[in-house]
Specification:
It is built from 13 helices and 12 strands. The protein has 353 residues and is of the alpha/beta class. It has a domain of 236 residues: NAD(P)-binding Rossmann-like Domain (Rossmann fold), CATH 3.40.50. The strands form 3 sheets. A 7-stranded parallel sheet has the order 3-2-1-4-5-6-10, with helices on both faces. A 3-stranded mixed sheet has the order 7-9-11. The protein is globular, with a radius of gyration of 20 Å.
């Protein structure tokens, strides 16, 4: 038996692949285009492991996807592959439409064709698991209740609009064609192998390099933070026990403003890697906010706990300590991902702020 994972060399996808193979002998067929955020170094520990079949390719390549499905006959597709950085979507939305919308459409059509060929027992057991984001729900006010699975969609960035579109495609393929789908909408992930364009890894690597820690606006934008290992366990639970056609919100029960996150990272670095020049908080620099920046996200994760018995194992305090320590222990990985292309992007995004 096998599963097909798309985007399995990215941040969340690679953590899922590593987590899956640490607990199962079921083969993972890993399809990843290896764009800037896809990194085979994340999967170095699986080199030579016959349970991991890596294929470099695009989810929009229908012939390739059809071939992989026909060859490996997976019992499930777990779909992580996506462009996911809001700032990049503001600078260049086209790539987000191509991957997140067109790519998901192609993958759904390939899955539908493959599913239709399965024997009745395998057809009943098959699942298409779509991994999405809380950003599709829009922005909350300070006193608004957290997002539930029935919250109306109100995406505010090109990224979240493209993910909302992909969610709607998945829903439609279930209701029109009866494709057995599952969808999870997660809050902000953090943890090992996180590409340092996002808040937490950017703050860690910049602090260690004695560079400014750019905080957008007043830094009071609130997010719910989910340790990536907990997200992986939630996906396993939904894949194993989730009800076909249902949506499950996955959150960490950790609402915190960005500035508090940055301060927590600085405090941990002061403890674990003191800087002779002084506390890392001296590097905090408030910069111009990004356009249309959502003020608050919050996930109500009671449904997945009630129906599937899942709850995050990590608090923010335990998860952020593990994360900072991982970056301290993996300086070679950090250096490898900070290529010329990465430096060009940082210059593009922050030069005018």
């Amino acid at each position: 038996m096998s599963i097909l994972v798309t985007g399995g060399a990215g941040f969340i996808g690679s953590n899922f692949v590593l987590d899956w193979l640490a607990q199962s002998d079921e083969t993972v067929v890993n399809l990843d285009a290896l764009t800037y955020a896809g990194n085979l170094a994340n999967l170095a520990s699986l080199q030579g492991d016959a349970r991991h079949v890596f294929v470099q390719g695009d989810i929009g390549d229908r012939a390739l996807v059809d071939s992989l499905l026909a060859t490996h006959r997976p019992r499930a597709i777990v779909h992580f592959a996506a462009e996911s950085h809001v700032d990049r979507s503001i600078h260049g939305p086209g790539a987000f439409m191509k991957t997140n919308v067109d790519g998901t459409f192609t993958l759904l059509e390939a899955a539908r064709g493959y599913w239709g060929t399965l024997a009745d027992t395998d057809k009943t057991a098959f699942r298409f698991h779509h991994v999405s984001t809380d950003e599709v729900y829009g922005s909350l006010g300070p006193g608004d209740p957290a997002f539930t699975e029935t919250h109306p969609y109100q995406p505010n960035s090109p990224y979240s609009a493209s993910k909302a579109a992909s969610d709607h495609l998945v829903r439609a393929w279930h209701h029109t064609y009866e494709l057995p789908v599952l969808t999870t909408n997660c809050s902000n992930n953090y943890g090992p192998y996180h590409f340092p364009e996002k808040l937490i890894p950017l703050m860690i690597v910049n602090a260690l390099a004695d560079k400014p820690l750019p905080v957008y606006g007043d830094g009071q934008q609130v997010r719910d933070w989910l340790y990536v290992g907990d997200h992986c366990s939630a996906i396993r639970a939904v894949l194993a026990r989730g009800q076909v056609g249902e949506v499950y919100n996955v959150g960490g029960w950790n609402e915190k403003p960005n500035l508090e996150i940055v301060q927590a990272i600085c405090a941990l670095l002061d403890e674990l890697r003191p800087d002779p020049a002084g506390p890392y908080a001296r590097l905090v620099t408030h910069v111009k906010d990004r356009p249309g920046h959502d003020r608050r996200y919050a996930i109500d994760a009671r449904k997945i706990e009630r129906e599937l018995g899942w709850r995050p194992a990590e608090t923010f305090a335990t998860g952020i300590r593990k994360t900072v320590q991982w970056y301290l222990d993996h300086a070679d990985w950090v250096a490898q991902v900070q290529s010329g292309a990465y430096r060009d992007w940082v210059a593009t995004n922050y030069a005018t702020r």
